[in-house]
Design brief:
Blueprint (H helix, E strand, L loop, with lengths): L1 H21 L2 H19 L4 H24 L15 H36 L13 H5 L1 H24 L9 H7 L1
Length: 182
């Protein structure tokens, strides 16, 4: 079980690092949107590249931040019954949820988006709007990147659930603290 714990910690470090880097895009997003609004309403002008940079920052923040949110349990969960359960029972529910929902979703996204993203890279798909940022192929690459990061977070969560079930962790909901302690 030491290998499982080490794997969980390593995967959590990846997820946590990506999330902590990407969270800074929120600052860029706010500043870029502020600039768009000030230019539009204060000076009656706009720059399509600046408007598209808001789209790119927003997409990157959310697509690459999903796994970080899962690690730190920031996702929506209905805790009516779950909160009163023992850590072992919560681990079983989370384990089933990861196996039945999260991992199949990540794999389905990877499988279905690959041709779409590959075609975009093949033609080096350009701007969303005329005169915009010529990197739509990079924007579309966020889809498989999100799926891979989500699968990494799911495997780490699965490992923590297994450790809790076999009695090697006091509470599997401390996944966020695993990454912080590493």
């Amino acid at each position: 079980m030491g290998v499982v714990a080490a794997l969980a910690r390593a995967l959590d470090r990846v997820t946590d690092t990506v999330g902590r880097v990407v969270m800074w895009l929120a600052v860029l997003l706010v500043l870029a949107q502020l600039a768009v609004v000030l230019l539009r309403y204060g000076f009656s002008t706009s720059f399509i590249q600046l408007q598209e940079s808001v789209i790119y920052a927003h997409a990157t923040l959310f697509m690459l931040g999903i796994a970080f949110t899962m690690l730190h349990e920031g996702h929506v969960r209905v805790d009516i019954l779950y909160a009163d359960m023992t850590p072992r029972r919560r681990a079983w529910i989370d384990l089933i949820g990861v196996i039945v929902a999260v991992m199949p979703f990540g794999l389905l996204v990877l499988w279905t988006c690959w041709p779409f993203v590959a075609a975009s890279w093949r033609i080096r798909e350009g701007a969303i709007a005329y005169g915009g940022l010529p990197f739509q192929f990079l924007l579309k690459s966020l889809i498989p990147a999100m799926a891979v990061l989500l699968l990494i977070a799911a495997v780490a969560h699965l490992c923590r659930c297994l450790l809790t079930i076999v009695g090697r962790r006091p509470d599997h909901r401390e996944g966020a603290r695993v990454a912080d302690a590493a």
